[in-house]
Amino acid sequence: MSSPGLFIVKAGYLDVLAQKDSVIHRLDPRVKLLTTLLFIVTVVSFDKYHLSALLPFGVFPIVLIVLGGLPAGYILNRVLWIWPFAILIGIFNPLLDRQVLLHLGSLDISGGWVSFISIQVRFFLTVSAAFVLVAATGFNTLCLAFNKLGVPSIFVIQLLFLYRYTFVLADEAGRMVRAWQLRTPLRKAMTVNTFTLVLGSLFLRAVARAERIYQAMCCRCFDGTFHPAYRLKWKMADSLFLIACILFLVFFRFMRPVTWLGEFVTGMFS
Amino acid sequence: MHMADALISPAVGGTFWLISTGLVGYSCRKVKAALSDSKVPLMGVVGAFVFAAQMINFTVPGTGSSGHLGGGLILAILLGPWAGFLVMTSVLTVQALFFADGGLLALGCNIFNLGFWTCFVAYPLVYKKIASLPLKSSFFWAAMLSSVAGLQLGAFSVVLQTVLSGVSELPFVTFVAAMQPIHLAIGIVEGFVTAGVVAFVVRAQPQLLETPGLMAAAKPASTKLVVMTLMIAAVVVGGAVSWFASAYPDGLEWSMSKTSGTEELDAPDHPVYSHLTDLQAQTAFLPDYGFKERPSPQADKNSQRWPAVNAGTTVSGLVGGLLTLTLAFGIGFLLKLAKKHSTASAA
Amino acid sequence: MSHHIIQAQGLHFVYPDGTPGLKGVAFRITHGESVALVGANGAGKSTLLLHLNGCLLPTQGSLRVGDLPVTAKTRAAIRRTVGMVFQDSDDQLFMPTVFEDVAFGPMNLGLGPEHTEPLVRQALERVEAWHLKDRPPYRLSVGEKRRVAIASVLAMSPDILVMDEPSSGLDPRSRRELIELLKTFEHTKIIATHDLDLALQSCPRTMILNAGTIQADGPSAAIFSQDDVLLQSRLEKPLLLRACPRCGAKPQF
Q1: Domain B5-242 classified CATH 1.10.1760.20?
Q2: Is B212 at the interface with chain C, CB within 8 A?
Q3: Which residues of C touch A13 (CB under 8 A)?
Q4: By CB atoms within 10 Å of each CB, which of A13, B26, B89, C231 scores lowest?
Q5: In 3-state terms, what secondary structure has residue A267?
Q6: The pLDDT of residue A30
Q7: What is the percent of chain B with per-residue pLDDT over 70, rounded to a whole number?
Q8: Which fold has domain C6-241?
């Protein structure tokens, strides 16, 4: 049986990684958020038949993983875990687009297969970049960055609360599921009726908890505004990192270093 | 279903990011005006509740497969549309960051598909209307029909976004024909769950749903907001599509000249112009639908027309790509070695 | 100076759904006293505690903390003198990290980050939890959470400490350490608990609450020796006051 509590803690391991100290961890969260978004936009801006031009973008997550001292195996594991979804959404392309696009020796490759592989490459690049962002920044620091970049405080605060109490409620939900399971050993999943009852009482508990939390906040003189205990400082290193990333993205997006390199190498052998 | 980064074009992703950010900003203003501070922890904890609820599987009646809760509608009913929308947005944000459900660029689309339709359309226009009817089971049908409506609209916008992005080959009609019935089934199940949970809450603590601050914010301006958002979405998407569509012929010409290796255009003897077309083609955010046009067999024989690309170019492209990827791993490996070395010497 | 005196007179409270919570509670607690508030489940302990810093306001009767009556207007000021430690530490530790959580109160008092830091450090060192400062609260043990929750209240330098079930969920060793810790505080303390041994060890005075009224009020050892009162209030004699079950030796307390 999968335990929601355990599951969420496993996912939360990304956040544990964020407590490490490295060149990447020390960067301002805003710069990491911006470069990651730029990276994703650049990757998906290639049209669907582009394949070779996408590959060098792998440098971005790989370098961040190494400089950030992040466990590549864990991140790859997380990416692979949801890979089936990407296969599912791409699988129609080879079936529907049979126009031959490439000839590799005697092998004819259809446009559908090229775009299928392109979707998979995009998937690996965008998903690993997002995981690296969280693992090198941490959710709370990211929220601070959202706030600094103009997201309203009220949204950011309840987002922080959501994250904090996901661990508590997932644990509660896990206990309820276990209690149900122990008395219903022959079933794999709840019936809709049981499910609504469990959900209903979980909701009432959540509301009661929210009330107690609000009381606890009031007891410590909460007056409606939040004062973050940490401040963000934009440093020289942040500007340099941003510029380096933009140069990297522009170079690989608009120049054709891959083609040059390929032509150079194939030229040597022919 | 979540939209994914791998399926989306920057124009579609960006447009829905803008729309969703606007809605979040507007909802924040509404929530701030209508609710007391005490509702901020409530929103967060209820968001955590949706999260926890999504991890519990239940049996879908009659099929034996298992499903889980979506959440948008139930949030709108329990917290009101503005707070509900913000909480749904938060749930999707955490999913995008920690589970890569969807993705960062697709987040705007997902917020729109799963939050906007349920909180600002299905809730005020279907749920509230039916729930206020003086029927015995009006409440059940309100939950059921609004849940179905919300999911149908959401599924339809997934189809639109996918087709507009053009990364997937799925044709519009086939995709719609697959998505809508699947989401009808999901909607009915979700309707049962929503009705059940809300009925449970009403029985146990009726005052929870009658908090004036929460419900008062539900009524006015909702229809206006829906119409306005849809209009903005239509104008922006339409504008983006037509702009890129008009840019596309240049792109085709450019790629033709590139692949055939001959300049067939008159203009490019002016370097600035050729550079601009080049850039324009490179930045063509929407894929060129023209590429899907199947070249006639005759044209195929001529073999100089796109997309039957010269094999030599492609092979060198692939070789180059694989080499850079290897280089990328090499860089990673070297960096790691260097780091190990420096820590070893420091110790 | 009546600064830290807590005085209740004819305190009544009825919940919005009509359930009576308190039915005429009266007491006076003076500066520096440690008072245990005991009673069965549903006797009204938590309801009374929530009045002490204005989370709930009396339906009838009055409650004064220091020089101020507890009303909607004064509760902000009262919350600066009354520190409340909640039963479920998860409700109290809502900020992302331990440091931020302990800093939450001082920051709300308008102190800047540079003034907050030493206060946070002092409070966390007081409960021997400074090493936990960067941890998120959900990665702490129950005992650690309780310490941090206490620190988050200490950081506001309250004069009066109010605690709801401080020993619940703690393992024997953590419970022992908590009792030792409580003994070192010089604040006026009001501790609601089911742990009568804790009450006996850390509070010279005990009030027994039963069905919304005060059943008994006096020196702890004397109160816990009245078997009939304990029986009526669904309580049992603390182990420290019982004879040894093996050798029959009389209690030392």
Answers
A1: yes
A2: no
A3: none
A4: C231
A5: helix
A6: 93
A7: 63
A8: Rossmann fold (3.40.50)
